[in-house]
Design a protein that fits this description.
It comes from Arabidopsis thaliana x Arabidopsis arenosa. This is KIB1-4 beta-propeller domain-containing protein. Helix content is about 5%, strand content about 40%. The strands form six sheets. Strands 21-20-22-23-24 form a five-stranded mixed beta sheet, with no helix packed on it. Strands 1-2-3-4 form a four-stranded antiparallel beta sheet, with no helix packed on it. Strands 8-9-10-11 form a four-stranded antiparallel beta sheet, with no helix packed on it. It is an all-beta fold and about 300 residues long.
């Protein structure tokens, strides 16, 4: 569901969450989702001996939503993981159907539902870095929750983005497909990335736009370079690249993505040679690296210290 450093956040069909370190094979088992702290939200995992999907009971006890691992709702859930591999501290958060935001951090005894505590949240996307959870909400706010204490605190006065909505409007010939948030490693600043299709007459182009807020004018501005960093679309944090070119077009100042991250009806889908693409920010061109393996999973992760 998510990655941080050498670790992956995993979940199985019985709704058992765990963190897996790919290098050491160490596993951290997270608490069951069957009871959320506060006693108001329940996940009833499916029986491992049956094919029945589990049920989700919302805050009112009447908000009954069935979930199925093959459903659109489950596949569109957003998850983030941040782990300090020196201290072992970690934060996990994930959303279900955009309206329910669950979180867990090392030292807790159960999951918590952030929506239970007077938080009205509909989440487009989120990122997690340095004990902070960044939310990009449906009303285009950037909200930041600090997990460094015993309980996450939202300090709006320390959030430079709070009063300034992300208000970039596409041109009439531009059609946005997806919007994602990411944290730039070098500066700690928030980036908003748009995946879009540009149409001029009968010519179409797949593009990615990157926006950053000018902290002096408090206006969101388009940026045209990530310097010596690259971005995996949807992963939430830029990646410093010690080597500027990793081959197959993957290099610094580029965006790595999978085919579902871009418009599905574009002509590139007919002639691409793999389900992964690389967008060169400087040239605004896409390269589809040759597919070297078979995979049933459409999600790709970069893990530090591992090369294939």
């Amino acid at each position: 569901m998510a990655s941080s450093g050498n670790c992956l956040l995993m979940v199985d069909r019985r709704l058992k969450f765990y963190i897996l370190n790919l290098l050491t094979r160490t596993t951290i088992n997270l608490p069951s989702m069957s009871l959320i702290r506060g006693g108001q939200v329940f996940f009833k995992p499916q029986n491992e001996w049956s094919n029945d999907s589990g049920c989700f009971f919302g805050p009112s006890r009447n908000d009954n939503v069935s979930y199925d691992f093959d459903s659109v709702e489950w596949k569109n859930s957003v998850a983030v993981l941040w782990i300090n591999e020196t201290t072992g501290d970690y934060v996990v958060a994930w959303t279900f159907i955009q309206h329910y935001l669950f979180f867990y951090k090392s030292g807790y005894w159960s999951w918590c539902n952030l929506n239970l505590y007077g938080k009205s949240l509909v989440v487009f996307d989120m990122a997690c870095e340095n004990n902070k959870l960044y939310l990009y909400t449906a009303n285009h706010h950037i909200r930041i929750f600090d997990f460094s204490g015993a309980y996450p605190m939202e300090k709006k006065t320390e959030n430079p983005y709070w009063k300034y909505l992300f208000n970039a409007v596409e041109e009439p010939w531009e059609y946005v497909w997806k919007r994602k948030i990411a944290i730039q490693k070098s500066s700690g600043e928030v980036l908003i990335i748009l995946s879009l299709k540009q149409v001029f007459y009968e010519a179409e182009r797949l593009l990615f736009y990157i926006f950053k807020m000018n902290l002096e004018s408090f206006k969101w501005e388009r940026v045209y370079s990530l310097g010596d960093e690259m971005l995996v679309f949807g992963q939430g944090v830029t990646i410093p690249t010690a080597l500027k070119d990793l081959g197959d077009g993957i290099k610094s100042d580029s965006i790595y993505f999978v085919d579902k991250d871009v418009w599905p009806d574009h002509q590139d889908h007919d002639r691409r040679v793999s389900n992964c693409g690389v967008f060169n920010i400087a040239t605004s061109k896409i390269k589809w690296p040759t597919k070297k393996y078979r995979s049933v999973n459409e999600t790709q992760w970069f893990v530090l210290g591992v090369a294939y």
